[in-house]
Amino acid sequence: MAQGLASSLIRPKTLTVWEIMIPVIFILNYAKLKQSREILIQNQMFTKKMALDAALDMQKKDASKGTVMAQIQSKTKELVSSVPGGIYSDDIRRQQLKEIDLLVDHYTRLLNAVGKDYASLVTHAYQTAADYSSFLEALKSTENEVMGAARRTLGDQTDMATAAKIESITANMRTAEAKKIFSSDSQPQDAE
Known about the structure:
The protein is mostly helical. It has helices at 2-9, 17-21, 23-60, 65-82, 90-111, 118-126, 129-154, 160-181. It has one domain (18-181). It has eight helices and no strands. The radius of gyration is 19 Å and the shape is globular. The two termini are 27 Å apart. 16% of the residues are buried.
């Protein structure tokens, strides 16, 4: 999903005559495009990866949610002071912790479900489209709070148009995914 978002948001520029005539320019521009997309993907996946790792630790190492959340709080607190330029604030961190908390529950729910693929895990974990949509709304709300904290932290440096595009593209992708998962044609597949 993060890759789809990056591809939708960061589009390649139209080829110029110079790029056709001098392939090195094309290669450099392609590398910049790829790097921009990778940075966006890493930023989008930051909280998701922390939450998934925490849910895996809870399952594999029999760690409690309190323990994994304390580790995440400690790690993110260190990041606040280590990220230069004041672009990562305690306000952003607090909102991200709420998002991570929600995602830990979601990933734990999926890890405890039966299924062969993501769609079957979701259908077994949430049972109905309404329940899954409720989770997606809660996730959207927490992500919006993170974005709000980022806007407060960055002030005039905030790219409001890009933020709005991210929210819109993400909502559209999630809606399409939920419809596909809970369509009448797709039946849950039990794990063998």
